[in-house]
Amino acid sequence: xxxxxxxxxxxxxxxxxxxxxxxxxxxxxxxxxxxxxxxxxxxxxxxxxxxxxxxxxxxxxxxxxxxxxxxxxxxxxxxxxxxxxxxxxxxxxxxxxxxxxxxxxxxxxxxxxxxxxxxxxxxxxxxxxxxxxxxxxxxxxxxxxxxxxxxxxxxxxxxxxxxxxxxxxxxxxxxxxxxxxxxxxxxxxxxxxxxxxxxxxxxxxxxxxxxxxxxxxxxxxxxxxxxxxxxxxxxxxxxxxxxxxxxxxxxxxxxxxxxxxxxxxxxxxxxxxxxxxxxxxxxxxxxxxxxxxxxxxxxxxxxxxxxxxxxxxxxxxxx
Length: 319
Ligand code: NAD
Ligand code: TDX
What we know:
Blueprint: E1 2-6, H1 11-21, E2 32-36, E3 56-58, H2 65-72, E4 77-80, H3 87-92, H4 95-115, E5 119-125, H5 148-167, E6 171-176, E7 178-180, H6 189-198, E8 203-206, E9 212-217, H7 218-230, E10 237-240, E11 245-247, H8 248-258, E12 266-269, H9 284-290, H10 298-311, H11 313-317
Parallel strand pairs: 1-2, 1-4, 2-3, 4-5, 5-6, 6-10, 7-9, 8-12
Antiparallel strand pairs: 9-11
Helix pairs in contact: 1-7, 2-4, 4-5, 6-8
């Protein structure tokens, strides 16, 4: 299989590329990997250290349909990760989210169809369902996004599904929960908490810290995408859960404990606007059809992740 990966210099995309060129997804029989990324503040070639020579990299804006088409000709599958991804940034400045996430997705879909790709995986998020106070959301739940980021992702899902219906491109939409692992931009909660503590500051917790997130290791996310790519999905939309739901305050205490710091190194700060109380997806569709199970144990993988940020200071200090 020849695979094109958009957003492959970002957090999840770079972890996925690393596994694509490694041994982990042998079932895909990967022959060639094309990575497209315009290296925004969130993307860096440092994330591809050690594998850059194994891929064909293009610094390309996904909204440039002609360039994307040219660069992905010959690819069997496109895995579309590229997006503006941070909720807080979407609150202070939403337009780049609409451009890259909605228009960008239409552009990559057009390019994939023009280049003759046989498969398209659109990476979306559990945030499109909005806040889930109790229970878990299935794939048929209504879309009810609350942040400009989530609205742009919900828009991109509809764009992708409409393109599939109109033009017959086989599209799979995945909606996963919060990812964690190495190479995540320190604007996101886990690396933000760890790097702030390592710099001597306190964890800034929004509101009362009672919001719940379901944590999915980035390698398990990649595995789920590889299962979908290797198979013939019966459905168009698949949730991917992490199976580990905790409050942000519990998360803060786990990190403090692991770093051997006092529990009072938490500072409660004003809440995020329209802060979703809880996300929780029902991923039984993926589990039953593909035998998907998250492999990583949270307690072990969060320890490994915290150590990664402690051991790779130059990656986040840029010294
Ligand atoms: P990220 O911000 O770390 O990486 C995004 C990458 O896309 C960056 O390398 C950036 O340079 C690139 N990009 C952005 N706009 C672009 C454009 N116009 N042209 C080309 N490249 C562009 O994000 P991430 O956390 O790796 O998320 C990847 C995908 O997964 C996103 O679609 C996001 O919505 C989705 N997602 C993320 C999470 C999470 O917990 N991080 C959870 C669910 C879904
Ligand atoms: O400083 C902080 N303090 C804090 O309390 C930050 C950065 C976050 N938080 C809280 C907000 C959330 O409840 O931690 C939780 C996680 O925050 P983020 O890492 O910003 O993630 P979230 O808003 O849940 O969205 C993430 O998961 C879904 C990704 O950033 C999205 O791209 C993905 O779609």
